[in-house]
Design brief:
heterotrimer, A alpha/beta, B mainly alpha, C mainly alpha, B: mainly alpha, MetI-like fold, two-stranded antiparallel sheet, 75% helix, C: mainly alpha, 2 domains, 12 helices
């Protein structure tokens, strides 16, 4: 992966310890990971395994206490200042006082784009997530799935090559989630972005990813990395194929090996 | 008997009405001052006493028949208010001479009014305008009955004018003293209140923004501000009068001090109200302090800021009026209240209070309207 | 206790800053009058001496903190409690009508709230007026109530307590209505599945749920009640109480007296709010609330 194009994300010996009232908690320990351009990498594991923390370290929302992390060949902080990535949270986190188009425009305003450039990108990204026609709506007038799509549009609006997604569909029901997964894959293949995707659903991880990073808790660490053998073209029906089920079984084994099922 | 739908209010009203008839005259007769022969008595309610009785009985009986509640409400509304109008009209010239039947029939009319409001409250309106209309009509009837009972009791029982003047006298006084009231409003509200409110709220807001940049200040100011909000700040009024003289400047100073702390505390709390996720989002954009403040934290703080503005609208009026008790030029609402109380012109005091209440409600209402326009997105606004 | 320690240092240092600022202001504000005195006495004091003099004036524009402290100490601890110059005596006069009014106001507020929650007619007709009445400068009525009641022979504690009642029942009503309505639909449905009567739902669900709201609004109410009592003492006729002290100080320009009366009023207010807060916490603890 690291051969020709430089790694988008490279972590080595990464560790993060939180100081809490009950003493230090090792959220990440000794994480080595390289993510190449155009990959779709899922992080899976039980709660407390540090998958969200790892994503936040990549995004420079947390500082590691040991080891190194580089994003696009820079430190995570430099990458953040260069707006190298779009981040999608667990909830849509749309500003209720802005319409959908103004929400998508938010990062563009902060980055100082001209009105015309803003309008062009808003139109393009809303098209990309199939939200054309909802520009003037307020977030609370949309369903949960549409809100989350708007927040993905907001992350895509400024054309960062890296998309960091922290359980973006966790709060949605399964029917909506399937639909959004399909759309996300389509979006990924059309834009050729690099995506880091945190989830705790095995089928979701297998369905979406080119690589699955299995993590386990206490201390948070990478216990297995599974390369997907599925083709890039993935209709929803692929989830019933033996190949898919085999990968899912490997992920489940990886979770079990990390003692993720102990509690 | 399924055409009958008894209600306790209507039954009780009929009972009261019958007792009233059994007891006889509604009010005592009095000597006619205009009659030629001395000792000629004139009798109150000569023409209307049976009309009152009839209207009460009829309205109560009809209301118990099975019919749409809107019709019932209309019947009760007409009946109750006709009776109230006849009773109050008839007592003119016989103030203080009312006997038990007067009050019994007033009570009966009030019960019918209650029944009317109860009927309206149980209506399930479907259209939006119907709901709005009901939301206004029901409290309006309630308010009207407070005035009716106030008027009828003060005049019927002949309560001394200085103790509690009837609303009609207060209304007449307002109409008769518009220039004086206008001058008082100009002095107290347009000078002291508005100036103090704007400066005090702005100062609190700016201090909060500054405090927010320094966590040390924020941690210290918040408990202090909370504590100060509970203190009787109004007590600084005499000091401000000593410092800034008798004119409106000293009142504005009191208002500034009173409005400063609620704004400070609320703005600081509001600036902390934006969610973690939203703040992280701004961080991923490498957004600086100022864009984050303007695009995220101030809009998120808006409900808190408006809460302070609403609290302050009341505090400002109170501050200015009470500060005037400590000394003013010969104009101003607080001045008028304290001097007219001294001269026992209680109707003028009530007139001034009515104006103050009106001004307070308008002030609050304007702030609330602006709030609705600005924080339209907030669940408390879009839900209701 | 962690948060307490976090706050302690900032709070004390800000308060210390206020005291320093107060001294500076006192010097600046009292300077013109002192300069006036000095020119008249043909004195040209050194700057240090001049500053010293600005802080010991008998009727300063702004008394220095230590002057207020000394006055407060003398009038609180050195005078017999029965003396009408004693701050303890005056504070007690105000406190007694505050407490009486607060008790009545709270009771009245709770009763009205229960009525509003259970009688739809009251909810629709009375509640809008309760809310509207909060926008009205009620304190303006205070002098009239005092004087009018005095005219019919009611003086002393009762009129002041009435003002306090009036001021304190609004917050309690509004808070209590909110509290009694605070149980979620789920809990109400649960009571419904038990076929619980209205009174059972009231005592077992609504009342416990409303307790935190009650104490929060009581804190506001007790502060309002004190303000009502103080303002009730302002119209002529009141001979004792913190409000009377303020008025007397204003008449005779005894600025130090005004400030120490203010300090006394603030201490009473702080104590009252604290007592209500502690009571609230004890009740919460007794009801099995999680210790914060």
């Amino acid at each position: 992966m690291t051969g020709i194009s430089p790694a988008v994300v490279a972590a080595s010996k990464l560790g993060l310890t939180f100081q809490t009232n009950d003493g230090p908690v090792q959220a990440l320990s000794n994480v080595d990971l390289t993510i190449g351009k155009g990959e779709f990498v899922s992080f899976i594991g039980p709660s407390g395994c540090g998958k969200t923390t790892l994503l936040r370290v990549i995004a420079d929302l947390e500082k590691p206490t040991s080891g190194t992390i580089s994003v696009n060949g820079m430190t995570a902080e430099q990458a953040r200042e260069k707006r190298a990535y779009g981040y999608v949270f667990q909830a849509a986190a749309l500003f209720p006082w802005r319409t959908i188009e103004r929400n998508v425009a938010l990062p563009l305003e902060i980055m100082g784009l001209s009105r015309a450039a803003q309008a062009e990108r808003i139109k393009r990204t809303l098209d990309l997530v199939n939200l054309s026609g909802f520009e003037k709506k307020y977030p609370w007038q949309l369903s949960g799935g549409m809100q989350q799509r708007a927040s993905i549009a907001r992350a895509l609006a400024f054309d960062a090559d890296l998309l960091l997604m922290d359980e973006p569909f966790g709060a949605l029901d399964e029917i909506v989630r399937d639909h959004l997964n399909e759309q996300l894959l389509e979006l990924w293949s059309r834009t050729n972005k690099t995506i880091c995707f945190v989830t705790h659903s095995i089928p979701e991880a297998v369905y979406l990813s080119t690589r699955i990073v299995v993590m386990s808790p206490r201390p948070g660490r990478v216990s297995d990395i599974i390369e997907s053998t599925l083709p890039r073209e993935r209709p929803l029906g692929i989830r019933e194929t033996p190949e898919f089920l085999a990968i899912a079984a490997r992920v489940r084994d990886g979770l079990r090996a990390g003692h993720s099922y102990d509690d | 008997m399924n055409w009958l739908k008894p209600s306790w209010q209507a039954v009780l009203a009929i009972v009261l009405c019958l007792i009233a008839v059994a007891l006889g005259a509604i009010a005592a007769p009095k000597v006619d001052p205009l009659a030629q022969s001395a000792g000629t008595l004139i009798y109150p309610y000569a023409a209307t006493s049976w009309l009152i009785f009839g209207a009460l009985l009829l309205a109560a009986l009809i209301s118990m028949a099975r019919m749409p509640s809107i019709v019932e409400a209309v019947v009760l509304f007409i009946g109750a208010h006709l009776v109230a109008w006849l009773l109050i009209g008839g007592i003119a010239g016989f103030e203080g001479l009312a006997r038990a039947p007067y009050f019994l029939q007033l009570a009966a009319a009030w019960l019918l009014g209650w029944r009317c409001v109860a009927g309206l409250s149980s209506l399930r309106a479907t259209a939006k305008w119907e709901r709005t209309a009901l939301r206004l009509i029901i409290p309006a009837i309630f308010g009207a009955w407070i005035l009716i009972i106030w008027e009828a009791v003060t005049r019927g029982a002949g309560i001394p004018f200085i103790l509690l003047p009837p609303p009609s006298a207060i209304g007449a006084r307002i109409a008769g003293s518009l220039p004086v009231l206008g001058a008082d409003v100009r002095q107290t509200i347009f000078k002291a209140v508005i100036f103090g409110y704007v400066v005090g709220s702005a100062a609190g807001f700016i201090t909060a923004i500054l405090a927010d940049r320094v966590p040390f200040l924020r941690r210290g100011l918040l408990p202090i501000g909370n504590m100060v909000s509970a203190l009787p700040i109004i007590g600084v009024a005499p000091i401000m009068v000593m410092w800034f003289g008798f004119d409106w400047q000293s009142k504005a100073a009191v208002v500034i001090i009173m409005t400063f702390f609620p704004m400070l505390v609320n703005t600081v709390a509001g600036l902390a109200a934006s969610g973690h996720m939203e703040r992280d989002l701004m961080r991923t954009y490498a957004s600086g302090y100022l864009p984050t403040l303007i695009k995220l934290r101030l809009p998120a703080a808006a409900p808190f800021i408006f809460n302070a503005l609403k609290i302050n609208s009341t505090l400002a009026l109170i501050g200015a009026i009470v500060a005037e008790f400590f000394g003013t030029p010969v104009v101003g609402m607080g001045f008028r209240i304290s001097t007219e109380v001294g001269r026992m012109n209680i109707d003028m005091v009530w007139a001034e209070i009515a104006v103050a209440a009106l001004a307070g409600s308008v002030f609050y209402g304007v702030v609330a309207l602006v709030e609705r326009a600005v924080t339209f997105w907030h669940p408390s606004v879009r839900g209701g | 206790m962690d948060t307490f320690r976090d706050k302690l240092i900032p709070v004390t240092s800000i308060l210390a800053g206020v005291v320093v600022l107060w001294y500076v202001c006192a010097i600046i504000l009292n300077a013109p009058f002192q300069r006036d005195l000095d020119t008249r006495a043909n004195e040209t004091p050194e700057i240090i001496e001049f500053i010293g003099k600005t802080l010991v004036q008998p009727k300063p524009t702004l008394p220095a903190p230590h002057q207020v402290a000394v006055n407060f100490f003398e009038n609180t601890f050195l005078r017999p409690i029965t003396s009408n110059r004693s701050l303890v005596y005056n504070a007690w006069v105000t406190l007694s009508s505050t407490l009486l009014g607060f008790a009545f106001g709270t009771a009245l507020g709770i009763i009205i709230a229960v009525g509003i929650v259970h009688v739809a007619t009251l909810d629709r007709s009375l509640m809008p007026w309760i809310i509207a009445s909060q926008t009205i400068p009620i304190l303006a009525v205070a002098p009239m109530i005092i004087v009018v009641l005095a005219a019919v022979g009611i003086t002393g504690l009762i009129p002041k307590a009435m003002i306090s009642t009036y001021l304190s029942f609004f917050p309690v009503t509004v808070g209590m209505v909110k509290g009694l309505r605070s149980p979620e639909i789920m809990y109400l449905d649960l009571m419904h599945t038990y076929n619980a009567s209205a009174s059972q739902t009231f005592w077992k669900l609504r009342v416990p749920a409303s307790v935190p709201f009650l104490f929060t609004s009581m804190k506001v109410a007790v502060a309002a009640s004190l303000v009502g009592a103080i303002v009730g003492e302002l119209p002529t006729g009141a001979v004792a109480g913190i409000g009377a002290k303020l008025l007397a100080g204003a008449y005779y320009s005894q600025s130090i007296d005004i400030w120490s009366a203010l300090v006394a009023g603030s201490i009473v207010a702080a104590l009252l709010v604290m007592v209500v807060g502690i009571a609230g916490r004890l009740v919460d603890r007794a009801m099995g609330g999680r210790p914060a």
